[in-house]
Amino acid sequence: MDWYSRLRPLFFCVPPEAAHGAGLKLLAWIGAKERRRERWRRRWPAVEDPVTLFGLPFPNRVGLAAGYDKDGVGWRGLETLGFGHLELGTVTPEAQPGNARPRVFRLSKDRGLINRLGFPSQGAAAMIDRLTRGRSPEAGSHRAILGINIGKQKETPLRDAARDYRLLTRMLAPHADYLAVNISSPNTPELRELQGATFLGRLVDEVLEERDGQIATLGRKLPVLVKISPDLDAAEIDRMVGTLVDAGVDGLIATNTTVGRRGLLSRHRDQGGGASGGPLRDLSLRVVEQIAERLAGRVPLVAVGGILDAADAADRITAGADLVQLYTGLIYRGPRLVQEAALAARSAFGAVDRTGFDSASGSVAKTPPQGESAAPVGSLARAEPASEFDNDRR
Ligand SMILES: Cc1cc2nc3c(=O)[nH]c(=O)nc-3n(C[C@H](O)[C@H](O)[C@H](O)COP(=O)(O)O)c2cc1C
Fold first, then answer.
1. Residue nearest atom 24 of ligand 1, based on CA coordinates
2. Whose alpha carbon is nearest atom 6 of ligand 1?
3. Residue owning the nearest CA to atom 18 of ligand 1
4. DSSP tag of 278
5. Is 185 tagged catalytic?
6. pLDDT at position 105, please?
């Protein structure tokens, strides 16, 4: 049993948001001193699987999903856990409190979570302040790619939403390696309507225009990705992917949390909000498969949703994803999942023939495995049975 498995029952005795806050504090503490960072990097060595996507050098294919570190308070500590990228945010233009508590619930029997946080954010200026204080990488240190996920202010009406995303693009472009446009959270009223035909084209055009206007100043083209909901039907997904690729986005992220609740066992299953982890696993994989097929490698695809073990990560890569991201799996499995998923993603990518895809996008650089021994995809272990986490008193 690793230390996280021993600590988890303690974490699970306090309400989820309090446990999360304590975890972030610990990560901020680890990240504050180079000596500590070095010790943790040695404990959780990053899997070497370098890949260039959107013109960015990712150290490996596993990232932290948005929402874990919304304000960038723990990113220097998170970086020591072996992630190839960290997606901070969702950040909104101004500070806002989010929804009333309680707003996060464990679905222990389903190895999932429900959250209806509603973008609590300290605002873009606070995020920038933190990033500029700690950015310079030490020589030779593992350097994760830093994405920032952006969202509109709760009060901003949909017809003005493009203004918020434009402003955030302008403010954050100098501080991010990529931006992720979040129009798929179920917890900000009407947000997901931005995925519909009425708004999507104009919204993305405005963000990309703002981004293009910064190329000369920044000396680089900031990749812009869009994050998609799993609760769309096949026709909506096809239309959305078509619109986004035609508009010129650099990549897609699939998926956000689901409002679906089919077959759940946990006490809190009827709480409102978005479900993640186990309850999202199959749905999210199906959406990733559909998007990958529709994309045919024209832009890279990041898969997120229900990755709880190595086999889940491998399944997403086999389905056509280029990168994977973790959130709920980290809560149930701890940091060891990062390395497990990265090894599995590396093996899975090695086993998939992407030759057709590579030539189409020119962006997927396949790298042969090196260093750590990689398990064959078919032999990847599933995580512990749900009974190990069978505690949803809170
Ligand atoms: C507590 C919590 C907060 C989240 N906050 C955000 C967010 O601010 N922005 C966002 O794009 N996704 C957010 N997400 C969604 C995750 O990034 C991810 O898409 C989703 O949880 C599915 O991945 P998972 O099953 O590995 O958790 C959040 C998820 C959780 C559980």
1. 305
2. 67
3. 256
4. G
5. yes
6. 98
87 in Cβ contact with 209 (< 8 Å):
no
- Tell me what pLDDT residue 136 has: 56
pLDDT of residue 330: 98
Is 3.30.230.30 the CATH classification of the domain at 3-389?
Answer: no
Which percentage of the chain shows pLDDT scores above 70? 87
Beta bridge partners of 113: 106, 276
Q: What parts of the chain have a pLDDT lower than 70?
A: 134-142, 355-394
pLDDT confidence of residue 380 = 56
**How high is the pLDDT of residue 195?**
87
Instruction: Please report, as a single letter, which amino acid is at residue 330.
Output: L
**What H or E segment, with its residue span, contains residue 106?**
strand 104-107
Cβ of 258 less than 6 Å from ligand 1? no
Ligand 1 within 6 A of CB of 181: no
Ligand 1 atom closest to Cα of residue 113: 31
Give the closest residue to 180 by CA, choosing from 96, 243, 89.
89
Catalytic residue among 108, 184, 185, 276: 185
Residue 363 in contact with ligand 1 by CB distance below 6 A: no
Q: Strands, E, within 292-367: which ranges?
A: 301-304, 323-326
Tokens matching residue 236: 């909506």
Is the beta carbon of 276 within 6 A of some atom in ligand 1?
A: yes
Report the pLDDT value the prediction gives residue 134, as an integer from 0 to 100: 64
Tokens of 172: 């954050």
